[in-house]
Write a structure and sequence with these properties.
alpha/beta; 12 strands; 2 domains; about 600 residues; Rossmann fold; four-stranded antiparallel sheet; six-stranded mixed sheet; membrane; 21 helices; disordered N terminus; binds adenosine-5'-triphosphate; ABC transporter transmembrane region fold
């Protein structure tokens, strides 16, 4: 366990964040999620298109009203007869436009919420199935920011994104209306396009980088905060409070600076877009004036064009003011899709069904991310159904070897194989198995066992979903945990874990051993699984662990040498190497390192617990 606590606060390998999807991959993923709901896509698109046509019809009809009134004044015709159907059509267009636009927005929001829920589920699923070393490298903060903050940012942006899509459709329909009104007025309208294009081209690439940076800084801030909370004991132990507060402050300031840079860039962009609107409207009215004077278009046409353009300020304003949110949502979405698209690790071979298994470690070398090699070539065979204790001084590499033997992370070099106890010709490499298959074959309990927030029943059912109460009590009886479990206020319904009924460290270990009993794998790895207990508690846990080992292949990092003595063989490690291997009596008789450790153990009186 050496260096672990400290690493949790300021490890060198923590900057490898999880992948972020490219724009194309993100769009494809969202498209696929949307296409899974064809009904919603069709209804929201149809409502948006028809609603936009109705909305755009109003200024066009008002242009006709102007022409009718002018004609009536000139020729003294019956203005009322001509105006009545036009005004009725305006009223219908207004009502249909309003109803369908709000329907389109509602349907698009439902679609967005479904996509957000779908992606959230995929991210949670991928995070839970991620190889532990990937999770450790990325840091828990990065994963939790994506599942919580990023999904939240996207979900909150769904109404805005719906409004943006609706506005885009309205702009498209307006362009068609302009062209049908008069091509010269349409040309005048199009003078805004180069202004828009230039300012968008200068803003968008900048904004993508600024918003991605803002999200990344937010992620770093969460990670530093979470690590400070999780590693608070280490922070106190090493007197690192001030240093850690500085890191949190630094991360917050960097986050704030990134957010301000993004806002400033947006303010400059908004200014150029307002200027473009002024240029466009002036061009439409000036062109219209010249065309009316030359008798090429009617006053009604120019009125319709000016009203149309004015009508566009709304959708264009939405597009403009939402760019901020859309860019932020896109950055968040790219981070969500980055995880959602990760291939869940799957077994490269068909997982064997093994009743008993020999564990074979060949040429195991390992270096952590700092590059310093801590295991220097270990070859080891633990025959099926036998137990091997691993002992040695602190920092010898016992925990690293146990984690590699359990498949928690792969070695830098070498292989860990399971060989069928009944058919030694077969072998499966742990590196070829996914976490689910691996854990059905190799169970592990370490010193840092975790009790999940929920009822005792739920905590146990994690390893055997749907397992009935009878079986759960049988398992608790089997490990002797039933004695204290029955005394809990609500038995299996007692809420344990964070915020629940407090359990002692020994009870938490007892529970972890019970989960192992329930899972019933042919191979078990215990890393100081009985260390977190008083002497009496340790004896009880050792008895439970011994029972669990019976009939299984076991690797036990033994905190207490009495536990090592009970194993079939003992491996002594020093400086990342295997230095002795044999039974307790042989090793004591050999007078080597183990004999020295045993002498120290017995003379220090710790054997009294045996
Ligand atoms: N996450 C890590 N990153 C970098 N180095 C590590 C990490 N974990 C362990 N080490 C280093 O690897 C070496 C072996 O550590 P390991 O925890 O395997 O030894 P150990 O024999 O189990 O020690 P202990 O009995 O104190 O738990 C040590 O030098 C340790 O500092």
């Amino acid at each position: 366990m050496t260096a672990r606590g400290q690493d949790a606060v300021a490890g060198p390998s923590r900057d490898q964040q999880l992948p972020v999807a490219s724009g194309r991959v993100t769009a494809a993923a969202v498209g696929r999620a949307a296409m899974a709901l064809p009904g919603l896509v069709a209804s929201s698109t149809a409502a948006a298109v028809v609603g936009s046509i109705a909305t755009i019809a109003t200024p066009v009809l008002l242009g006709r009203v102007v022409d009718v009134v002018i004609a009536a004044l000139d020729r003294r015709t019956d203005v009322q007869a001509a105006l009545t159907p036009l005004l009725a059509a305006v009223a219908v267009a207004v009502v249909v436009g309003a109803v369908l636009t709000s329907l389109a927005l509602r349907e698009a929001e439902r679609l967005g919420a479904s996509i957000a829920a779908d992606l959230r589920e995929r991210v949670v699923d991928r995070s839970l199935r991620m190889a532990p070393q990937t999770l450790e490298r990325a840091g828990v903060g990065d994963v939790s920011t994506r599942v919580t903050e990023d999904v939240e940012v996207f979900t909150r942006s769904v109404p805005t994104i719906s409004a943006v899509i609706n506005s885009l459709i309205t702009v498209g329909v307006s362009v068609v209306a302009f062209v049908t009104l008069d091509w010269r007025i349409a040309l005048a309208f199009f003078t805004v396009v180069p202004v828009y294009v230039l300012s968008l081209r200068s803003y968008l690439p900048k904004a993508a980088v600024l918003y991605a940076e803002e999200r990344s800084r937010a992620s770093t801030r969460s990670r530093v905060l979470l690590e400070s909370v999780h590693g608070s004991r280490t922070v106190h132990a090493y007197g690192m409070g001030e240093l850690q507060a500085d890191r949190v402050r630094g991360a917050s300031e960097a986050g704030l600076a990134a957010a301000l840079r993004a806002r400033r860039a947006f303010a400059a962009f908004a200014w150029t877009m307002n200027a473009a609107e002024a240029v466009g409207l002036s061009a439409v009215i000036a062109t219209g004036f010249l065309l009316v004077r030359a008798d090429l278009v009617s006053v009604g046409d120019v009125t319709a064009a000016a009203l149309l353009f004015h009508r566009l300020f709304g959708p264009l304003g939405i597009l403009l003011t939402s760019f901020d949110d859309v860019q932020r949502a896109a950055a968040a979405l790219a981070r969500i899709v980055g995880v959602a698209q990760m291939d869940p690790p799957t077994s490269r071979v068909r997982p064997p069904r093994l009743a008993t298994a020999t564990v074979r470690l060949t040429g195991i070398r390992h270096a952590y991310d700092d590059g310093h090699e801590v295991l220097h070539g270990i070859d080891l065979v633990v025959p099926a159904g036998t137990s091997l204790a691993v002992v040695g001084e602190s920092g010898a590499g016992k925990t690293t070897l146990a984690a590699i033997a359990a498949g928690v992370f792969p070695p830098s070099a070498g292989t860990v194989e399971l060989v069928d106890g009944e058919d030694p010709a077969t072998a499966v490499d742990l590196a070829d198995l996914d976490q689910i298959d691996l854990r059905s074959l190799v169970g592990m309990v370490s010193q840092e066992s975790h009790v999940f927030a929920g009822t005792l029943r739920e905590d146990l059912q994690l390893v055997r979903p749907g397992c009935g109460d009878e079986e759960l009590w049988a398992a608790l009886d089997g490990t002797g945990a039933a004695a204290w479990a029955r005394a809990l206020p609500d038995g299996l319904d007692t809420v344990v874990g964070a915020g629940g009924h407090p359990l002692t460290a020994a009870q938490e270990q007892h529970l972890a051993l019970t989960r192992l009993y329930l899972r019933d794998p042919p191979v078990v790895v215990l890393d100081e699984a009985t260390a977190e207990a008083s002497s009496a508690g340790a004896r009880e846990l050792e008895r439970v662990a011994d029972d669990l080992l019976t009939g299984r292949t076991a690797v036990v990092v033994a905190h207490r040498l009495t536990q090592a003595r009970a194993c079939d063989r003992i491996l002594v490690m020093a400086d990342g190497r295997a230095v002795e291997l044999g039974h307790h009596d042989e090793l004591v008789a050999a007078g080597g390192m183990y004999a020295r450790l045993w002498r120290t153990w017995t003379t220090s009186g710790r054997d009294a617990t045996a």
